[in-house]
Amino acid sequence: xxxxxxISWFLTLCSCILSAQTLSDKDLAYFKKYEDSLATMxxxxxxxxxxxxxxxxxxxxxxxxxxxxLNTLSFNYPFDSLTxxxxxTSPDKKFRFIGWDIPKEDGTYTYxxxxxxxxxxxxxxxxxxxxDKSLSIKNPETYASDxxxxxxxxxxxxxxxxxxxxxxxxxxxxKLTSRKFIDVLSFKKDGTPIFGKDVFKMPxxxxxxxxxxxNAKTTMxxxxxxxxxxxxxxxxxxxEDYLENQFQFYGPDLSYDAFILRRGKWNFEExxxxxxxxxxTDNVRRDKSKKEKAVYTPK
Length: 299
Hints:
This protein is α+β, with helices and mostly antiparallel strands. The protein is built from 3 helices and 15 strands. The strands form 3 sheets. Strands 5, 6, 7, 8, 9 and 11 form a 6-stranded antiparallel sheet that branches. It is globular, with a radius of gyration of 21 Å.
């Protein structure tokens, strides 16, 4: 079984390398023109203060990027000079996320993006526009939708699972709090991307994605640990018990929790020892006899 997996992995890697080499000099020159124009536009998007200026620049950027991405060969073009734009490709090369955020003067954010995904039948890359509807979504954790009603965020990690992908993302939210998410992406038989899925096992909760909200002036760790097939993250707590659910007072308390992947599901576990990672068959639950003490103090 292990040998078969290694052979499959090697063939996939070779296929990806060959795919990345399919762009001719003519193709490279074609996309380079788009990239140069987009690189100029991104300066107005991110280095001006007025909302109207930023959104006008973003609209022009969006349409030009869409024009470039509609060419299926664009999947193999990296757009490396677009340093302010998030570009994230799945390890199996089945899809790519390209996205950006516009921070507004009131402290909130609007997100824009595209998914380039290989169609299951044609084996060609299709382009899906991501339309941010997060401002109208009251409960992000129970929300699932396609790309036309996307809960906007910037993704920074992709974890391939059995029949879906787990995405780690960030959302600036507002002046008081920031948020991080464990989101889920799957695809319908017709290739349509779907965000949100029942793959989390948690006490008294049945989320389609998991949200963490905390003080905007602090940082939170949320990362994938390949050694234990686990998503490890800071345990968030308020400064005092009476501040519970007032997330502008939440921050890391120096302990860690995790979601362990077992049989295609993410199982919540408390008090993970990040200094000494255990195997995914070990019990890593929190020691209930250990009294938790929040040490976070917001500025």
